[in-house]
Description:
The structure holds two protein chains of two kinds.
Chain A: H1 2-34, H2 43-76, H3 79-83, H4 88-115, H5 125-155
Chain B: H1 2-6, H2 8-34, H3 37-48
Amino acid sequence: MEDFIVFSVRYLHVICGIMWIGILWYFNFVQIPSMPKIPDEQKPAISKVIAPEALFWFRWGAAGTVLFGLILAAMNGYMHEAMTFQQPDIGFGMWLGLIMAFNVWFIIWPAQKIALGIVEADADAKPAAGRRAMLFSRTNTMLSIPMLYSMISVQNPPGL
Amino acid sequence: MSKILESLPLTVVAGIVLTVIMVFATNQLESMNQSGPEKAISDLQKKMN
Protein backbone atom coordinates (compact mmCIF):
# COMPACT_ATOMS: atom_id res chain seq x y z
CA MET A 1 0.00 0.00 0.00
CA GLU A 2 2.84 2.38 0.88
CA ASP A 3 4.41 1.72 -2.54
CA PHE A 4 1.12 2.65 -4.20
CA ILE A 5 0.91 5.92 -2.24
CA VAL A 6 4.51 6.81 -3.23
CA PHE A 7 3.68 5.93 -6.84
CA SER A 8 0.52 8.08 -6.74
CA VAL A 9 2.41 11.08 -5.36
CA ARG A 10 5.07 10.65 -8.09
CA TYR A 11 2.32 10.36 -10.73
CA LEU A 12 0.72 13.63 -9.52
CA HIS A 13 4.19 15.26 -9.41
CA VAL A 14 4.78 14.31 -13.06
CA ILE A 15 1.26 15.37 -14.18
CA CYS A 16 1.67 18.81 -12.53
CA GLY A 17 5.21 19.07 -13.93
CA ILE A 18 4.03 18.43 -17.48
CA MET A 19 1.29 21.05 -17.01
CA TRP A 20 3.86 23.58 -15.73
CA ILE A 21 6.76 23.00 -18.13
CA GLY A 22 4.42 22.38 -21.06
CA ILE A 23 2.85 25.83 -20.64
CA LEU A 24 6.28 27.40 -19.96
CA TRP A 25 7.52 26.03 -23.28
CA TYR A 26 4.24 27.06 -25.00
CA PHE A 27 4.88 30.65 -23.86
CA ASN A 28 8.53 30.62 -24.95
CA PHE A 29 8.47 28.46 -28.08
CA VAL A 30 5.02 29.49 -29.46
CA GLN A 31 3.30 32.53 -27.96
CA ILE A 32 6.17 35.03 -27.48
CA PRO A 33 7.72 34.44 -30.96
CA SER A 34 4.24 34.58 -32.58
CA MET A 35 3.03 37.84 -31.02
CA PRO A 36 4.80 40.16 -33.53
CA LYS A 37 3.15 38.23 -36.41
CA ILE A 38 -0.40 38.67 -35.04
CA PRO A 39 -2.37 41.71 -36.31
CA ASP A 40 -2.97 44.33 -33.58
CA GLU A 41 -6.76 43.93 -33.65
CA GLN A 42 -6.38 40.20 -32.90
CA LYS A 43 -3.83 40.57 -30.09
CA PRO A 44 -6.47 40.95 -27.33
CA ALA A 45 -7.48 37.34 -27.99
CA ILE A 46 -4.07 36.36 -26.65
CA SER A 47 -3.56 39.01 -23.96
CA LYS A 48 -7.15 39.06 -22.61
CA VAL A 49 -8.27 35.45 -23.05
CA ILE A 50 -5.55 32.86 -23.71
CA ALA A 51 -2.65 34.25 -21.64
CA PRO A 52 -4.63 34.73 -18.38
CA GLU A 53 -6.06 31.21 -18.67
CA ALA A 54 -2.63 29.74 -19.47
CA LEU A 55 -1.09 31.65 -16.55
CA PHE A 56 -3.65 30.14 -14.15
CA TRP A 57 -2.70 26.55 -15.05
CA PHE A 58 0.99 27.56 -15.32
CA ARG A 59 1.32 28.87 -11.75
CA TRP A 60 -0.85 26.20 -10.12
CA GLY A 61 1.01 23.53 -12.11
CA ALA A 62 4.22 24.92 -10.61
CA ALA A 63 2.74 24.88 -7.10
CA GLY A 64 1.49 21.30 -7.50
CA THR A 65 4.82 20.12 -8.90
CA VAL A 66 6.73 21.52 -5.93
CA LEU A 67 4.16 20.32 -3.38
CA PHE A 68 4.07 16.72 -4.63
CA GLY A 69 7.84 16.73 -5.25
CA LEU A 70 8.58 17.71 -1.67
CA ILE A 71 6.10 15.14 -0.33
CA LEU A 72 7.79 12.50 -2.52
CA ALA A 73 11.25 13.45 -1.24
CA ALA A 74 10.03 13.32 2.37
CA MET A 75 8.28 9.95 1.88
CA ASN A 76 11.38 8.47 0.25
CA GLY A 77 13.61 9.90 2.98
CA TYR A 78 16.09 11.81 0.80
CA MET A 79 14.90 15.37 1.43
CA HIS A 80 17.83 16.43 3.65
CA GLU A 81 20.47 14.56 1.63
CA ALA A 82 19.23 16.12 -1.61
CA MET A 83 18.91 19.67 -0.35
CA THR A 84 22.41 19.56 1.18
CA PHE A 85 23.92 17.98 -1.98
CA GLN A 86 24.83 14.72 -0.26
CA GLN A 87 22.70 13.33 -3.12
CA PRO A 88 23.60 15.91 -5.79
CA ASP A 89 21.96 14.04 -8.69
CA ILE A 90 18.44 14.83 -7.43
CA GLY A 91 19.58 17.79 -5.31
CA PHE A 92 20.41 19.96 -8.32
CA GLY A 93 17.01 19.22 -9.86
CA MET A 94 15.16 20.03 -6.66
CA TRP A 95 16.97 23.34 -6.15
CA LEU A 96 16.45 24.33 -9.80
CA GLY A 97 12.74 23.46 -9.52
CA LEU A 98 12.39 25.53 -6.35
CA ILE A 99 14.14 28.53 -7.96
CA MET A 100 11.89 28.22 -11.02
CA ALA A 101 8.71 28.00 -8.89
CA PHE A 102 9.85 31.07 -6.93
CA ASN A 103 10.28 32.91 -10.25
CA VAL A 104 6.77 31.89 -11.33
CA TRP A 105 4.96 33.02 -8.18
CA PHE A 106 6.99 36.03 -7.08
CA ILE A 107 8.34 37.54 -10.31
CA ILE A 108 6.57 36.30 -13.47
CA TRP A 109 2.98 36.26 -12.17
CA PRO A 110 3.13 39.71 -10.48
CA ALA A 111 4.76 41.15 -13.61
CA GLN A 112 2.19 39.53 -15.92
CA LYS A 113 -0.66 40.93 -13.84
CA ILE A 114 0.69 44.41 -14.61
CA ALA A 115 1.57 43.68 -18.24
CA LEU A 116 -1.84 42.16 -19.04
CA GLY A 117 -3.80 44.84 -17.19
CA ILE A 118 -5.17 42.45 -14.56
CA VAL A 119 -4.15 44.99 -11.90
CA GLU A 120 -4.08 48.78 -12.14
CA ALA A 121 -0.69 50.24 -13.09
CA ASP A 122 0.84 53.23 -14.87
CA ALA A 123 1.07 53.00 -18.65
CA ASP A 124 4.86 53.21 -18.35
CA ALA A 125 4.94 50.22 -16.01
CA LYS A 126 3.34 47.82 -18.49
CA PRO A 127 6.21 47.45 -21.00
CA ALA A 128 8.77 47.15 -18.18
CA ALA A 129 6.66 44.48 -16.47
CA GLY A 130 6.19 42.62 -19.75
CA ARG A 131 9.95 42.60 -20.36
CA ARG A 132 10.64 41.43 -16.78
CA ALA A 133 8.12 38.59 -17.16
CA MET A 134 9.62 37.58 -20.51
CA LEU A 135 13.22 37.54 -19.23
CA PHE A 136 12.35 35.46 -16.15
CA SER A 137 10.22 33.13 -18.26
CA ARG A 138 13.26 32.67 -20.52
CA THR A 139 15.40 32.10 -17.42
CA ASN A 140 13.03 29.32 -16.39
CA THR A 141 13.17 27.84 -19.90
CA MET A 142 16.97 27.78 -19.62
CA LEU A 143 16.87 26.22 -16.13
CA SER A 144 14.23 23.67 -17.18
CA ILE A 145 16.82 21.89 -19.36
CA PRO A 146 19.23 20.90 -16.53
CA MET A 147 16.29 20.50 -14.11
CA LEU A 148 14.63 17.88 -16.35
CA TYR A 149 17.99 16.16 -16.94
CA SER A 150 18.42 15.84 -13.18
CA MET A 151 14.88 14.55 -12.61
CA ILE A 152 15.06 11.98 -15.43
CA SER A 153 18.64 10.81 -14.90
CA VAL A 154 17.93 9.84 -11.28
CA GLN A 155 15.31 7.34 -12.45
CA ASN A 156 17.08 6.42 -15.71
CA PRO A 157 20.88 6.68 -15.30
CA PRO A 158 22.49 7.97 -18.52
CA GLY A 159 25.63 5.90 -17.91
CA LEU A 160 28.03 8.86 -17.82
CA MET B 1 22.83 37.80 -19.79
CA SER B 2 19.68 39.51 -21.08
CA LYS B 3 21.13 39.33 -24.63
CA ILE B 4 21.21 35.54 -24.30
CA LEU B 5 17.70 35.36 -22.83
CA GLU B 6 16.24 37.57 -25.58
CA SER B 7 17.23 34.89 -28.10
CA LEU B 8 15.37 31.57 -27.81
CA PRO B 9 18.13 29.50 -29.55
CA LEU B 10 20.79 31.02 -27.26
CA THR B 11 18.58 30.31 -24.24
CA VAL B 12 18.42 26.64 -25.23
CA VAL B 13 22.20 26.52 -25.81
CA ALA B 14 22.76 28.13 -22.38
CA GLY B 15 20.48 25.47 -20.86
CA ILE B 16 22.53 22.70 -22.48
CA VAL B 17 25.80 24.29 -21.25
CA LEU B 18 24.34 24.48 -17.72
CA THR B 19 23.38 20.81 -17.99
CA VAL B 20 26.96 19.83 -18.86
CA ILE B 21 28.28 21.89 -15.93
CA MET B 22 25.70 20.29 -13.62
CA VAL B 23 26.67 16.76 -14.73
CA PHE B 24 30.34 17.56 -14.08
CA ALA B 25 29.56 19.09 -10.66
CA THR B 26 27.35 16.10 -9.77
CA ASN B 27 30.15 13.65 -10.59
CA GLN B 28 32.64 15.68 -8.54
CA LEU B 29 30.30 15.89 -5.54
CA GLU B 30 29.45 12.19 -5.73
CA SER B 31 33.13 11.19 -5.81
CA MET B 32 33.78 13.46 -2.83
CA ASN B 33 30.85 11.96 -0.93
CA GLN B 34 31.96 8.40 -1.75
CA SER B 35 35.44 8.95 -0.34
CA GLY B 36 34.04 10.58 2.80
CA PRO B 37 33.32 14.26 3.38
CA GLU B 38 35.85 14.49 6.20
CA LYS B 39 38.62 13.23 3.89
CA ALA B 40 37.65 15.76 1.23
CA ILE B 41 37.69 18.62 3.73
CA SER B 42 41.03 17.44 5.09
CA ASP B 43 42.50 17.25 1.57
CA LEU B 44 41.22 20.72 0.83
CA GLN B 45 42.73 22.10 4.04
CA LYS B 46 46.07 20.51 3.19
CA LYS B 47 45.98 22.15 -0.24
CA MET B 48 45.18 25.52 1.31
CA ASN B 49 48.08 25.18 3.75
